[in-house]
Amino acid sequence: MTRVLSSWRRLGLRMRLTLLYGGLFFLAGSVLLWFTQLLTARALNQRFVVAVASKVTGAPGAVLGGKLPDSDVLAQRVRTNVEQGAADALSDVLRSSVIVMILVGAVAVVLGYLVADRALRPLDRVTETAQRLSESTLHERIGLRGPQDEIKRLADTFDAMLDRLHRVFEAQRRFIANASHELRTPLAVNRTVLEVSLEEPAASEDLKALARALLGTNARYERLIDGLLMLAQSEQEPTARKPVDLRQVVRTAMEQIDLQPRRRKVVVHEDLSPAVAHGDPLFLERCLVNLLENAIKYNVRDGEVWVRLREEEAGVSVTVENTGPLVPPYEVDDLFEPFRRLGGDRVRSARGSGLGLSIVRAIAVAHGGEVEALARPEGGLAVTVRLPSEPGSSCRR
User: Fold this and answer.
1) Nearest to 128 by CA among 107, 144, 104, 110
2) Residue 126 · residue 144 · CB < 8 Å
3) DSSP secondary structure letters along 52-100
4) Rounded-to-integer distance, Cα 327 and Cα 318, Å
5) What is the pLDDT of residue 136?
6) pLDDT recorded at residue 103
7) Is 342 exposed, middle or buried (0-12, 13-18, 19+ CB in 10 A)?
8) Bridge partner list, 245
9) DSSP characters for 108-164?
10) DSSP character for 166?
C-alpha cells in the first residue's frame, strides 16, 4: 500500500487527474451496466419468459398420433428454450455494452487529459513565471486574464507578492549605494588627515605614533566596511552573466595577493584544467581572491597551497587547499558565518574582518553554486567551490 501511494504521488497532477477522471468514469459505467443488466433480466423474465410460458400452458393441445401431448411437458420445454434465448440475448447485450464502455472510457480518458491540461495551463504559466524570475527580472508579472476563480486569485496574489519583493530589493540596492558613499567618505577623509599629519615636519614622535595607530585602525574599518558591502552585494543575484574563463580568473586573482605575508613564504601549486563558468567575472574574481587570501593568511611558515580547477558533469569546481593549523571538523561550518574565525573568535581583526568565506559562499550561492569545506587531518582546509557552466542551471546535489 505504501509503495502504491508513493508511486501515485510521483505522478504529475495532470496525470493524476486524468487517472482519477478515467477511474470515476469506469466505476460509474460499471455500476450503470450492472443495474441495466439486472433490470433487463428482470423485465425479460417477467414480461417475456413468464408470459410465453403461460400462453403455451393455456393453449389447446394438438393431437399427435391420436394422443394429446402433455401440456406441462410442452410448457417446460418452451420455457427452457425461452429462458435460454433470453440468457443468450442478455450475454450478447452485456458483451456489447462492455466493449462500448471500454471504447467510450478510452475516449473519456483522453478527454479527461485534455480537460485537466486545459484547467492546469494557468498553473503552468504561474510556475514558468516563478522559475524565470530573478532579482533582475522582478518587474515581470503573470497578468493572468479570465474569470475570478481560484487560479486567477492565486496569480493575482503572486503578482502582489512580486510587487512587494521588487520594492524591497530596490530599497536594498539604494541602501547599499548610499551606504557605500556615506561610510567610505569619512574614512577616506580621516586617512588623508592622518597621512598629512605624518608628513608634517613639526609633528612630535608621540603624535606620529598616534597617527600611525589611528591609520591602522582606520584601515581595519575600511576593510570591514568593504567586506560588509561586498557581502551585501554578493548575496544579490548578478545582473551581468556571461561565459568566464576560470583559468584566467585564477591567474588574475593570484596576481593580486601577496605570496609572502609577514615574511612567511608560501608555495602555491597550480593544477588548472580548461573550465568555463557562467556568471559575473568581477564577483568570481573576488571569490577566488578571498579563497587564496584565506589559504595564505591562515597558513604556517613555509606552507603550501594547492589550487585545482576541474570541469565536472554539472559544472566546474575550484578547490583551494592549504596547510595550516588543525581545524576541528565541527568548526568548519561556522567559518562561513560572518565575523566567525577559528576558535569562535569574534574580536580580533588584525588578520581580517572575518567575512572572507562568507563572501565566498554568498557569491557561489548567487551564481547557483555551492561551497564545501573539509578539514585536513594534517592541518589546514580544503575549500571547494562548484559553479554551473550553463545559465540558469544549478550545481546543488
Assistant:
1) 144
2) yes
3) HHHHHHHSPPPPBTTBPPPHHHHHHHHHHHHHHHHHHHHHHHHHHHHHH
4) 21
5) 59
6) 87
7) middle
8) 276
9) HHHHHHHHHHHHHHHHHHHHHHHHH--GGGTT------S-SSHHHHHHHHHHHHHHH
10) H
Strand-pairing partners, residue 320, are 307, 383
**279 touches 241 (CB < 8 A):** yes
Pairing of strands 381-387, 316-322: antiparallel
Strand ranges of the sheet holding 266-272, from the earlier edge strand across to the other edge: 266-272, 303-311, 316-322, 381-387, 370-375
Under DSSP, is residue 352 helix (H, G, I), strand (E, B) or coil? coil
Rg (C-alpha) for the chain, rounded Å, is 41
Consecutive H or E run containing 277: strand 276-279
Question: Which stretches of the chain score pLDDT less than 50?
Answer: 60-68, 346-350
* Grid cell listed for 383: 575549500
Residue 115 grid coordinates: 480537460
Rounded Cα distance between 199 and 191, Å, is 13
What one-character-per-residue DSSP string does 313-347 give? SSSEEEEEEE--S---GGGTGGGGSTT--GGG--S
Helices (H) and strands (E) in the chain, counts: 9, 7
Question: Within 13 Å and on the Cβ side, how many CA atoms surround 29?
Answer: 18
Residues 151 and 144: their CA atoms lie apart, in Å, by: 9
* Total length of the chain: 397
175: exposed, middle or buried (C-beta count within 10 Å: 0-12, 13-18, 19+)? exposed
Q: What is the CB neighbour count within 10 angstroms for residue 5?
A: 9
Task: Take residue 38 and report the three cell numbers written for it.
Answer: 439486472
Cell numbers of 299, please? 597558513
- Nearest Cα to 365, choosing from 272, 287, 285? 287
Pair 56, 74: CB distance under 8 Å: yes
* Residue in the structure block whose three cell numbers are 588623508: 192
Is residue 259 a contact partner of residue 297, using CB atoms and an 8 Å limit? no
Give residue 67's pLDDT: 47
Category of 177 on φ-ψ map: left (φ > 0), alpha (ψ -120 to 50) or beta: alpha
